[in-house]
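note to self: dont lose this again. the chain is below, predicted strucutre after it. 259 aa total, dont forget to put it in the shared folder this time
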Amino acid sequence: MTITQIQAKKGVEKITAITAYDALFGKIFDNEVDFILVGDSLSHSFGGNSDTLSIGIDEMIYHTKAVCKGVKESLVVGDMSFGSYCNESEALKNAIRFYKETNAGAIKLEGGLNRVGIVKSIINEGVAVMGHIGLMPQFARSEGGYKIKGKSEESANRLKEEALALQEAGVFAIVLEGVKHEVATEITQMLSIPTIGIGSGVHCDGQILVWSDAFGFFTEFKPKFVRRYLEGEALLKGAIREYVKDVKNQNFPNLDESY
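---
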């Protein structure tokens, strides 16, 4: 799957995406979804942190390399971590590192009008970029929490302006997170590039979820926009308890499982 193939799906077929952080899950999800995001959400679900700000560029590249080893067909997109693209020089250095050290097909970064110059510089160096506007987790602490965007006319108009500016800058797709669904629909209709929704309604060109949310492995909190397709934690705990019981009862290993 290439960025050109992703773009060709706009208006034709919904785009599907999921996160992954290692080769094992990358391989499981490969060719089941159109693209796999190595998201800085791994700070939450993999690192146990309270936000996405704790993860660094070295860790993002490490996990992206791991995912790429398990993925043969789906496009892999790597998140630029907080602080890794605060100016043009740092952004270029870290985006180029992503391409040199991993097999990712693109990088993703958060921000609208304030990132247009940086986005252009990265794309001019031959690195594909996915945009991300709306609720931006890297801005949550400075904004006093996770705020839904597009509730007011002013907020909606700014989102539209940012989406058009990012498209003009050359991003191949834009994630719309936590955007009122009416506004996300308007943005999707305005743009010639795909929109990928997360909590932004059904009319985006595609959808993405964090794998541990979608499959029930993260259970401390369930966002409104998450649909659970598996009770993963319960299933895994049941399995581990069976294993422990078999060991304690000397039912494992049996003769066929011994050398």
